[in-house]
Each structure stands twice: as structure tokens, then as C-alpha cells.
Amino acid sequence: MPNLTQRISAAVAGFKRGVEIWGSGTSWGFSRFFFWNKEGKDYRRDAGKVYDNAVVNRIINWYADQIGFASLVVQNRKVNDLGVASWVEDPSHLLPNSVALNPLLDPHRLWYGTILSLLVNDGGAFWYKLRSNGGTVVGYWYIPHTQIVPVTARSNELISYYEYTPIGGSPRRVEASEIVHFVHGINPEDPRAGIAPMGTVLREICGENGAAAMVAGLMDSAGLTAYAITADGDMTSDPTPDQIDEIKRQFRQNRLDAAPTIVPFRAKIQNIGYKPDEIAPKQLRYQQIAAITAAAGLDMIALGYPSESKTYSNFEQAVEAAWEMGLLPKLSAIASTLTRQVLVPDFGSTFNGLTRVHFDTKDVRALQPDANEERESWGKAFQAGIVKRSDARSALGLPVDDKTDNVYFTDLNQGLTPEQAKVKAQILSRQRAGRQLWEAQGVPDPED
Known about the structure:
Strand content: 15-25%
Mean pLDDT: 79
Shape: elongated
Strand order of the largest sheet: 1-2-11-12
């Protein structure tokens, strides 16, 4: 007869296999167990490769696909005749081409890897700069986050260099100037790293994996959950090993054939734990998916999941919100990193706030305003004297005549030609500058 220690060891082994024989003498059973998870679990370990989770992978795909609709550009800050500052694209700048015309990795795969690492890895995402013989950056190579770590060699440096270990290779040093390092937020325990959004919902990812496995298991076992076969009355001896093996074989086979299981003694079969309808796997999965997508700044409806949320009345609203709450903040952070780590050191720009890398979203359908609203908005801006007629027509995709459209609405009311309007604007600009100087020196305005 097995002692208590042997029974416990057998139960643990049975939990791992999902089935086990327990008991002896006149009382015994054949059981399949499910255990509730306890606190203290290592969810990071149990989640495994987070990007293998179906929900996380769908989030990564959505981000990578949507980024393709935004255009990476370099902009310069300009001030017009009225002193109004705006960002103007520099179409001749070479930095966007270093991403779009990457010689080794097409943009979609580059962004896919970047988003994957940013979402699942606290350390962030990494690009290696590809240079021409002359030293110009002509492209980038995505380095998996599992192959590279930042190294701090001196106390006055945040990151001194990176240690890169290619597959099947040995560790090698890569200078910090040759790496573009994207990080999501900042980790207070290690400022070199961030906090991956998916790392905050590892419990939910494990739960979703478990719920999916449970549903698959129910389908595979023809709806049988945890069960026990016990003797119905006293037995003079334990079942023989052959009888036990035959019961196991029948249960495994008959769940597929819908054939009866023959038990060679008087027995009863009992459910253990909850029935499938009591567990409500559909509701459990909904809660897990909602939490995972929310951590990425998305509503599950934007990814095509059915949603019970009443936040958005339709799919278009959910996608627009996903851009504004999820993707736009990440694009802003990515653009800021490219400005600091590529534009300034590798393309000769000065870090003075007058040049930046930016994602132009004018071709993103989800962010485009209604055509009628846009026309009305530009019309009001023109009538208020905020923009020139040429600006409004250009923004609406209408042809522009520089001889007649380069005027403000107030100029038209006064019967001024575009040339006269330009002179007037210059005079007003000088007058405004003079008033600002008087105010700064405490001199009263003569017109007051």
C-alpha cells in the first residue's frame, strides 16, 4: 500500500498529466483534476512567449498594419507673415528614405518587429544603423530584444554600449551611437528600460491561454470536464492494472467515437468542480481579452472581437479611438526617438526644436474629418482672417492661383490686390513687432 508521501507525489504527477489513480483497498477513484491558480505564481514564466498569445498577436498585427498608413517625414518650423508658427515638411530630406527604402528589411517587417518588442519587452526595441561606405545611414536592421542588452560601464553614463549576441554567435560590443533604442515609458527599477504594456497584464494573458485551452479541451473530450469513477459499494480488492488501463483507453477512445465506456465492476461516475455552463468560459475570455486590449490602448471591437462595451456605437468610432489613444502616442514617442538618435547625430540637424521627425497622418482614413465639416472649418478660418484663401483651397485639394488666391478675407473686403495685401501684411507685422518692443520697455503705445 502506498504511503502518504507516495500518494502526494502521485497526485502532483497526475496534475501535470491531467489524470491519476488514487486510493487503495475498498475505496479508490480515477480522476481528472483542475486546480485554481494560487498567488505567488510566476506569470512571466507561465505566459511564455507573450506574442504567441492570439490576442497579443492580433494587437501587434493591427499596429504594424496601421503604421503603414502614416508617412514618416522631416519637418521644419516656419513662421508666416502674421507671426504664426507651423510645421512644414522637407520633401528632400533623406531620413524618411532610410526607412522606406531600407535595403535589408521592408518597412512593414521593420515596424512589426519594433511594435512587437515595444509591447512585450520592458527593454524596448532596437534598430542597428546600416551605413554606406561614406558613413551615411541608409537603412536599419531590427535586432530581436532577446539578442541585445544595454551595458553601463561608467557611472556618469546611462548606456555606455550594447552587447549583441546573434543566433549561434558570441557576444559582441556595439557602440551606442550605432543603435536606435525605442523604449515605452521608463522603468523606475532600471531607467535604461521601460515598462512593456503587455507586461502589465501577464495574469490576464495566462488566463486567456488557460481559457482557450479549456475550451479546446472541452471540445476534445466531448464536453466532459473533471470527473471521477468510484466504486459503488465495497470492493474485495483493488482493480487490476489491466482493468485500469482498459478504463483509461476506453475514455480516451470513446470520447471521440461517442461509444459507451464499460467499467468491469459496479461503479458510479461523478463530476468534480463546475460544469461548463457554470464556468462561463465565454464571459471569462471576454474579460481577459478586454483587459489585454485595454493595456494596448485599444477597445476589443477595433480588433474585430465582439464587444459588450457601449463606449463606441460603431466600428469606425472604435478604430478612431484606437488611433488617438493607442497608436498616435506611440508614434509620437517613436518620432521623438528618431529625432534625438538619428536626425540630430546622423543627418546634421541641430537639436533646437526647429526640426523634427514626424508621422503625417493625413492619409489615415480613420482620422479624416467629414468632408463637409472640413470645408466648413476652412471656410470659417478664411472668413476670420486666420488663413489665406490659397491655404484653404490647398488644404481642400482645390487648385490655387497665386495671383488671385494669395489673400486674406479682410483684404478682399478692402479691395486690395495680392501684391497690396502682401505689403499690408509686412507693415502690420512691423507694427506688431514695434508694439511688442514698446511693451517690453514699458513705453506706452501711442495709439492707446
